[in-house]
Amino acid sequence: MTPWVLAGTTFLASAVEFVEAATIVLAVSVTQGWRVAIGGTLAATAALFVLVGVGAPILTNALSLERLELIVGPFLILFGIAWLRKAVWRFAGRKAMHDEAAIYAREVEDLRKRERGHGFAVAFQGVFVEGLEVAVIVVTFAASTPALVAWSTGGALGALLIVTVAAIVLRAPFSRVPENVLKAIVGVMLLSLGTFWTGEGAHIVWWLGEETLFALIAGYVAIAALLVALQRRIYRARA
Q1: What predicted TM-score, i.e. pTM, was given to this entire model?
Q2: Ordered DSSP codes for 85-101
Q3: How far apart, in whole angstroms, are the C-alpha atoms of residue 66 and residue 202?
Q4: Residue 149 or residue 79, greater confidence
Q5: Among 115, 180, 217, 228, which is least packed, fewest CB within 10 Å?
């Protein structure tokens, strides 16, 4: 498996989730102080690191590569479909576009109505929930391709570093980040990787070898574009 494909997928998926987590942490810091926000963030981050550190070795040591691919592959397919389905609905106009500025405003308004000590729990929950998907993806990639653990982990850590620095410098929600496009890309990547690994686990001989992955990506992009066009037509006809 091409290392940069795993690194790029984990980076993009992690960046999306970390941006959403950063919005919650920023809202907590504005309403209840940086100490509370940082405390909740560090606690959640530590819990996620434990999950990744424990989960990946257990999966890798417990199952053979073929059996892992038959577990990991379908899991990634379902994960990718969930991401891509939302992206198709958003671009088709059936679901509102993800807007970090609006989410930030709602979080700030909600937190100002709550007790001050509630901020730690909000920051912890926000970072843990958003980071859990990242942890699952990293553990899945690390278990299915043990030789490329550093690449998948590095992609997630790179996204964490960039988003953290940007949040500290900007101190504002990431409203200009094209999250909707990134989520569509991640959905296609997860779906393609899941299909490829499921095929390998089922002993399917891919006609292009590892290069088949890029054909799968192109195919799923075409399918997603077609679904967006069809959904737009259906939505407009019903309007």
Answers
A1: 0.81
A2: HHHHHHHHTSSPPP-HH
A3: 8
A4: 79
A5: 115
